């Protein structure tokens, strides 16, 4: 039940983000939540991390068991955008396009590690690759981390093996704003 509910929330988030014009605003039932994107630029690629506010994930949930389990979960959007606006899976990697998509869809979760406030490493539990089918130039991932305790995530490290940019570090602000 919990896995099905988490999958539903992830799919709902995916659909809401796909329809939203703004990368950092989340809208649900008349409420708007905003997160501040954190970008790093390396190897002519912009790597952007956006935290999905927990308030947004829990907005319409009534089941106490699901609410308590989701409170220790963090969801992030991670975007890759080449400075020349080309499809990075076709132009910025030594892999074939199919192999690059396969890496994004299956293996890229191993490239992400979160660090919590206590300095503990938190592995990425799951990734959803939002396929764009060449409609827009950026590639987007939805990352899911399950914190082992109440200590908030303060940093996300991405070890870029696909585009040879090395270690990309994002320091989090851990603030969301309800508008």
Quickly give the structural class: alpha+beta
User: Could you give a short account of the major beta sheet?
Assistant: 8 strands, antiparallel
Rg to the nearest angstrom? 16 Å
Strand percentage: 35-45%
Could you give the count of β-strands?
11
Q: Could you state the order of secondary-structure elements as H and E?
A: HEEEEHHEHHEEEEEE
Produce the secondary structure layout:
Blueprint: H1 2-19, E1 25-28, E2 31-35, E3 38-42, E4 45-52, H2 54-57, H3 64-70, E5 73-82, H4 88-91, H5 97-107, E6 112-116, E7 121-130, E8 139-146, E9 153-160, E10 166-171, E11 176-178
Antiparallel strand pairs: 1-2, 2-11, 3-4, 4-5, 5-8, 6-7, 6-9, 7-8, 9-10
Search tags:
179 residues; alpha+beta; Immunoglobulin-like; eight-stranded antiparallel beta sheet; three-stranded antiparallel beta sheet; Lipoprotein; signal
Textual characterization of the structure:
- It comes from Nonlabens xylanidelens.
- Keywords: Signal.
- Residues 1-20 form the signal peptide.
- This is Lipoprotein.
- By secondary structure, the chain is an alpha+beta fold.
- The protein has a single domain, classed as Immunoglobulin-like (Sandwich), CATH 2.60.40.
- Helices cover 25% and strands 40% of the residues.
- Strands 3-4-5-8-7-6-9-10 form an eight-stranded antiparallel beta sheet.
- A hairpin with a 2-residue loop joins β1 (25-28) and β2.
- It is globular, with a radius of gyration of 16 Å.
- The two termini are 32 Å apart.
